[in-house]
Amino acid sequence: MRALISVSDKTGVVEFAKELEALGVEIISTGGTHKVLEEAGVKVTGISDVTGFPECLDGRVKTLHPKVHGALLARRDVPEHMAQLKELGIETIDIVAINLYPFKATIMKPDVTLADAIENIDIGGPTMLRSSAKNHKDVTVVCDPADYGMVIEALKNGGTTYEQRYELALKVFRTTAAYDAMISEYLRKQIDAPYGDDLTLTFEKVQDLRYGENPHQKATYYKEIQPWEGSLVTAEQLHGKELSFNNINDTQGALATLKEFEEPTVVAVKHANPCGVGTADNLYDAYVKAHDCDPVSIFGGIVACNRPVDKKTAEEMSKIFMEILIAPDFDEDALEVLKQKKNLRIMKLPNITAQPPEDDLDIKKVSGGLLIQNVDHGVFDVENAPKPDQPATDAADDGQSAFGKLVYDNRLMVVTKKEPTEQELKDMEMAMKVVKHTKSNGIVFVKNGQTVAIGPGQTNRIWAVENGIKRCLLEMKGAVMASDAFFPFDDCVTAAAEAGVTAIVQPGGSVRDQESIDKANEMGIAMVFSGMRHFKH
Q1: 369-374 vs 361-366, strand pairing mode
Q2: Whose CB has fewer CB within 10 Å in the chain, the N or C terminal residue?
């Protein structure tokens, strides 16, 4: 019996080789692995002694030879194969232990060059792994040092079983598929190339979760090979129970909303929808604003902060039950207060304000396929929003007109007789940031840097408006209202004005826009068109 060992990760390889040697297995090896084994006292045969051909091209070619791949691919139960091996002077290789050049570790280096990355693309390793895995009926292939012990134990008990070899082969193909996907994605990013006709993505397991959205569903948490700075998967858990599927999903919603703000801000989320957002000069006041918007829904929710949590704020937060609190940092005395809450999951994310890359993907699984789009980076900006005489590029759905098709006064976004005040414009910006992360149909009411009501996820827009108004616990008079999409009728304007709203911001784009504008003029409120829709399904 012969074994070929060629590994970049030398973990446990000497012990593995010595165990094989003790079982009477002949060891073949290459390059650095050969040197390590020989220095450890293992009797080892160099690959060139097997192939009769020297390693060349700075080690780029070592094992790409018929005496290697013939030894791996020959079917032992096919007499013609075995006869050919004998005729060609090839001996079978029965055990293969290979792990690949450290491409991932290379590209993770901050100063890595393309040339460095390319030199760490393994060719011989994946080829031998695939050959061995294809012929797993006869060959035991190991690509993970964690499996060395299992293989040795099996050999001591008469040999690996077919089931064990099958599982090891499956791991090989998973490994090589992920390896190739990692390389192709790295090369794609170097030239900012579009995704091709075939899409292969690779992720690494973070952990198995206790269950999914419901206890009868299985779930697993994965991360990207190179997660971007400030992404949820890079957060550190400081305290509390293990994260659940819903915890992770809801926290993502809180983070996405929080990243819209630069000023001290607190975002509360329940079931992936914002239930309270507050901005202020300090974190304590921002938290009070977020809490007071909906003190019922924040209970058992997720709270995200974009400033370090101090003791005063921690004491206020401790008055209610929260599932997760995530912030860039925590003062030591604040952490002492918060850790008194046994079940509170405390998460630290130092780069919490970092923005996702422009090419970050939003991926949704559908039955039999995937929907992929870029993350919604659009932001309503009072200073740079389009004027009504500058049409948006995309027509609305269902035959509706494009934004700007009607003729309005050449005033920045304002489509009513009444102009919004500076405070209303500021609140509009905040409201659009929040409604962008609220499930459609979404409506958000904001007053003085505080959400006063949120109407998420209704099947028609007037219900979202009415739900927000009905559930409002704060003063609605003087608030602004933001909508994630246009108003198909003027009923939303009427309901908002009757509740005390003094200004509205919405994308515009309905063939019935003029009816909403006329109603706003009739009710004496200001209306602004953002020209940017924010559906979130």
Answers
A1: antiparallel
A2: C
CATH number 3.40.140.20 given to 233-348: yes
- Split the chain (537 residues) into runs of 10 and give each run's mean pLDDT: 92 94 92 90 88 77 82 90 89 92 87 90 89 94 95 94 96 93 89 84 92 95 92 96 95 97 97 97 98 96 98 97 97 97 96 91 92 90 64 40 39 83 94 96 97 95 96 96 95 97 94 94 94 91
Residues 372-376: contacts with CB under 8 Å, at least 24 apart: 372/195, 372/199, 376/436, 376/534, 376/536
Q: What fold does the segment set 2-190 form as a domain?
A: Rossmann fold (3.40.50)
Sign of CA dihedral 48, 53, 54, 55: negative
**Phi, psi dihedral angles at 273 (to 5 degrees):** -105, 140
- Provide the residue ranges of all domains of the chain, joining segments of one domain with +: 2-190, 233-348, 378-529
Q: Report the distance separating Cα 458 and Cα 461, nearest Å.
A: 7
How many CB atoms are located within 10 Å of the residue 277 CB?
A: 31
Helices marked H in 76-147 — which ranges? 79-88, 103-107, 114-119, 124-134
Buried b (16+ CB within 10 A) or exposed e, 212-225: eeeeeeebeeeebb
Query: How far apart are alpha carbons 162 and 154 in whole angstroms?
Result: 11
Of the CA atoms within 13 Å of residue 404, those in its CB half-sphere come to 18
| Identified catalytic residue from 18, 134, 312, 339 | 134
Tokens describing residue 431: 């409201």
Q: Are 252 and 134 in contact (CB under 8 A)?
A: no
How confident is the model at residue 400, as a pLDDT?
37
* Rounded-to-integer distance, Cα 463 and Cα 492, Å: 9
- pLDDT at site 387: 60
Nearest CA to 429 out of 371, 381, 486 is that of: 381
Given the residues 223, 271, 339, 387, select the one marked as catalytic. 271
- With vertex at residue 536, the alpha carbon angle to CA 244 and CA 268, rounded to the nearest 5 degrees, is 50
Query: Which structure tokens are listed for 104?
Result: 């991932």
**Homologous superfamily, domain 378-529:** AICAR transformylase, duplication domain (3.40.140.20)
Whether 271 is a known active-site residue: answer yes
Buried b vs exposed e over 359-375: b needs ≥16 C-beta within 10 Å? eeeeeeeeeeeeeeeee
Q: pLDDT at position 385, please? A: 63
Among all chains, which residue has been given the structure tokens 């004027």? 387
Q: Give catalytic status of residue 418 as yes or no.
A: no
